[in-house]
Amino acid sequence: MSQNLIGIYVVSAVERIVVAIAGRKEPPWSQSSRSERSDNGMKRTYAVLLGIVLLFATPGLASADVHSSPADAQKNINAVIARGLTQRGVPFTYGGGNTDGPTTSTDTAPAAPEATTSLLGLIPAPLATPAPKVPGFDASGLMVYSYAAAGIKLPRRSGDQYDYQGGRKVLPAQALPGDLIFYGPNGSQSVTMYLGNNLMLEASEPAVQVSQVRFNDMAPYLVRVIE
Questions:
Q1: Please, is 155 exposed, middle or buried when counting C-beta atoms within 10 Å of its C-beta (0-12, 13-18, 19+)?
Q2: C-alpha distances in angstroms, 22 versus 10, 17, 36, 38, 126?
Q3: CB-CB contact of 177 with 195 (8 Å)
Q4: What's the rounded Cα separation, in Å, for the pair 54 and 11?
Q5: Which of 42, 61, 104, 179 could disulfide-link to 194, CB 3.0 to 4.6 Å?
């Protein structure tokens, strides 16, 4: 049944409801009312019911903000993957990455301990100075950056991404490109993005890279954010 026929059918049904409420045999606009107050009340009643009908009879109006079309979903997934892949080779930086790109670590690097005299009276060589902070991504930061291509702001930590309310958990056997793969209890250790063909995009030492999917310590579910 076409949308127009559905709309006509539902409008006709509403007319009958309004007539029944008013105790009349015809729609309210086909007769003069007994009083102006009664007529105004019927008009308001019909306007409300007609608005409800139009909401559900107009194609796409009722559900436009609930689910995207398959074509739009695939377009967004492609954009997410493409944005993530542009960062291959960017250094791994613990705590790095946001919706705008790579960042320096938000954590303070540990200071090198002072040299001490050994039992033989020799001063050991000083420990290497921690490498200077460089802009980069950690695992969850890369996912935040990638999904920003679709206007989606993921939580910053992988464990929170695993429980992201805007996503749906799926089994590994149901994996599709763009799904998030998690590691550790409740996804608390790391997160990567499935690319298809048993490949994934990840931010790990030494840099953002494409690698084979690892199954050790994988969480029982993946998370699908776009569908």
A1: middle
A2: 18, 9, 14, 9, 94
A3: yes
A4: 9
A5: 179
List the pLDDT tens digit at each of the 227 positions of the chain. Answer: 444 444 444 445 445 544 444 444 444 434 444 444 455 555 554 444 444 444 444 443 333 333 468 999 999 999 999 999 999 999 999 999 999 999 998 655 444 455 444 455 555 555 554 555 899 999 999 999 999 999 999 999 999 999 999 999 999 999 999 999 999 999 999 999 999 999 999 999 999 999 999 999 999 999 999 99
Q: What are phi and psi of 69, to 5 degrees?
A: -70, 160
Q: Say how many C-beta atoms besides its own lie within 10 A of residue 102's C-beta.
A: 22
CA–CA distance, 192 with 201 (Å, rounded to integer): 6
